[in-house]
Amino acid sequence: MMIPLAEVSAAIGAGIVTVGAALGIGALCAVGLQSMARQPELQPKLQTAMIIGAAFIEGAALFALVICLMKG
To answer: What's the 3-state SS for 22-37?
Structure first.
């Protein structure tokens, strides 16, 4: 039994999207926490910016994931 190439490529694409989103959010959180450690008085502004940035990353990742799964 052979697996169609489109399904395999969709699964690989979905995995790449997931890893990319995880790395992006991880980098965002790391830089945000470093900034908060250096300047604690800016914590509310930085936290809001981090949440908005994470939401944009998740939105783009979800969009790409849906496209990968629709093509598969």
So the answer is: HHHHHHHHHHHHHHHH
Report residue 6: phi and psi, to 5°.
-65, -40
Chain segment 27-60, per-residue pLDDT in tens? 999 999 999 999 999 999 999 999 999 999 999 9
List C-alpha distances in Å: 51 to 3, 32, 41, 54: 40, 10, 17, 5
pTM for the whole thing? Answer: 0.82
With the C-alpha atoms ordered 23, 26, 31, 34, is the resulting torsion angle positive or negative?
A: negative
Helices (H), 1-72: 5-38, 43-71
